[in-house]
Sequence to fold (577 residues):
Amino acid sequence: MNIKIKRALIVLVSLTLITPQVIARADSAIPEQWTPLAAPGAGYIGFEANESFFASTEASTWFNFTTSNGEENGKITNIAICNTGSEAGCDFTIFSKYRAVLPICSSGSDINCISAITATDAQGKELEVKSASVFPKENPQAFAGNLSLNVPQGSGGVLVSIPDAKHAGGDSYLVKTTLTSQRNKGDKVFPAPSLGASISAVKIIEGDFFDLATETNTAKYDSIGRIQVGTTQTKNIDPFASKLCISTSLTQCALPYTMPKDITFGFSLRLSTSLSGWLHGRMRSAVIDYKRDGSTTNLSVKGTPITVPLVDVWAKSSDLSDTHVNTYQKQQWFGEARHYPPTLQNLGLPIAESEKTRSGMQNISFKHLNTSFSSTAMSNFLLWLPLAKDKASAMPTEWRIGTMSENGEGKVGECLNKAKGLAGLVTTNSTMYIDGPPTFKSGFLDYKVASTHLEADGTTVFKGTYELIMSSTVARCIYGFSSAPVSATVSITSENGEPSAATTLVNEKNGWLTLAAYNFTFSNPTVRVSLSQAKEAATKPAKASTIKKATLVCIKGKTVKTVIAVTPKCPSGYRKK
Fold:
């Protein structure tokens, strides 16, 4: 793994920690408030796939690293928090990163902001969205930005009220749309950002909380962009509780609730930068609109929330298979760790290589937190699926999209680069999928998904959804098709190669090709798409001898004329006899 990829995976913002008295307020019957299973003790290894962690770490921040020699291998001498980029320590040399949570647009001329938040009921009626405000109000690292450097303003989430879209916690919703980019040596300005967005049903509760702040103590970093995890915790508070809040201030928490699944939620953005690549996420019946007008980009996305199985499991390290242990020995460990006997000096990561062995695991507890959708993450998930008894721990609702980590290889990547725009959106309710576009081979677009076979009740069979919205231009490029209409088939193949029953949908509208499959079962099927186009019939001029002509007799007084032609007409002044 190269340095740039490592940096993208490191969260440089401290975790939000919730006091025990707030945990007691959370209702365990609400899936969105799932309290992660704590470590049973030494000798246990766990795994958790729970996307609520993503939203809880999304807060505005812009920071800049300085090293002793201006190179990546230099000693870190300063970590500055930036507002416009002109502050002391913000002169760029080696590495800088921003995460900008976008505000609501206050006027039609505002840029890099949310221009609309929408909600529509099942009958198509638009619902009133009102009382838009920033949450949290106090953002310690909000920043003004600098458009000359391609840095937008960083604010807080947008809290709105939708009176006709009530949920168990009220009618409040938190909308987070986030742009993220990092500048490395050689970049004149910040590159085009990646996008992340979520809509959550929330209730604002009062209490004592920690807000999010970037660590600026250079001693706590062992390299540029990589904090030594476990060194920032100063209070004895359960870190698992950090996942309960979607967002916090020092005194308030946005506690999540189940979203109504018959309401279509959406947002529109007005941006100063173009977006490219693929989006992926969690919603159903998605609709996307992307337009580039001069220097302004307008993006709209809407869809209904979906239920995604959450997996949370612990197992004795002695019960893990050799394959399981060998797989984990070969990779970095990202998650939450405890060394035994526990002391203030040995909390958290890193895990020593000796502790990755079967004997070394007896002296630690470690929960692997799945925070990506890579092929490695897919393999890890499939290792844990049997230990979870192929059953979900909880079934929370999600509404989320984000930029894929890659644009695809071969024909898929080539066609995306030619299009120089947004290629499409992939959404699914499966717990795990590959964070990338479908692969193209032998005329098929294939996409791997994986999830539990059963829902949290242990008896209901979980039914999958998959939707691919692809730019018609990109789709035709991949297959080498003309602008004529295309047809498509969508099929589901189970892990044993047998076809799986599914309801499919294919249509093309407004420059987007939509393909979908519903009601298929898991654990590890492949979604396969095939496009086709009828060959255009060749048109050749007919031979003169085969052209049929008609005869028409015309008269003018006593004068008679005969006209022979394919479509004969009487000359001027003549009439048909």
In short: Residues 544-576 form one domain. The chain is about 10% helix and 40% strand. Confidence is low (pLDDT under 50) at residues 1-27, 229-242, 537-547. The helical segments are 3-9, 20-23, 52-56, 322-329, 375-384, 410-419, 472-479.
